[in-house]
Amino acid sequence: MLNLFLPNKHVKSIFDIEPTFLQAEGKKGIIIDLDNTLVPWNVSHATDEVITWLKKMDDANIKVTIFSNNNEERVTVFAEPLGTPFIYQARKPLQRAFKRAKIQMELETDEIVVIGDQLLTDILGGNKAGFYTILVVPIVQSDAPITKFNRNVERLILNYFYRKGKLTRRMTDGE
């Protein structure tokens, strides 16, 4: 059961994920979380670095869909200026919106990677839907109030994976 929380890969940030790696793995699409994955949860717009990363994916013909449990306004304000498809109120880890993203991208399950900073939403949902999953270290250590409970549960699961050698710790800037 705990293996449903185990990502296929664990990296420090999205910037550690290169198009060449994804292409070598046969990936043609990314379903990516917004808050604390692309930008801190309290930042409204993409940074220049995120814009550059998204352009690299586009140049490599890798489709990207921004995928968030957050509300329509939050996700629209972020994604529309980028011209990036998005799904808001995804209700992760439920599979329905993951399947919707797959259909919108017109790709097969094995051609898509799910990237996010939370085990209990992004990784669990992506794994249950059959996608390759990549866990990133949260950009900031503070969270929206609703996420704080999840982080405590995640810490227990991550520590279990570290002890068992299933994951390698990824250091944050402050450590």
UniProtKB/TrEMBL annotation:
<dbReference type="InterPro" id="IPR036412">
    <property type="entry name" value="HAD-like_sf"/>
</dbReference>
<dbReference type="InterPro" id="IPR006549">
    <property type="entry name" value="HAD-SF_hydro_IIIA"/>
</dbReference>
<dbReference type="GO" id="GO:0008962">
    <property type="term" value="F:phosphatidylglycerophosphatase activity"/>
</dbReference>
<dbReference type="InterPro" id="IPR023214">
    <property type="entry name" value="HAD_sf"/>
</dbReference>
<dbReference type="Pfam" id="PF13242">
    <property type="entry name" value="Hydrolase_like"/>
</dbReference>
<protein>
    <recommendedName>
        <fullName>YqeG family HAD IIIA-type phosphatase</fullName>
    </recommendedName>
</protein>
<dbReference type="InterPro" id="IPR010021">
    <property type="entry name" value="PGPP1/Gep4"/>
</dbReference>
<dbReference type="InterPro" id="IPR006439">
    <property type="entry name" value="HAD-SF_hydro_IA"/>
</dbReference>
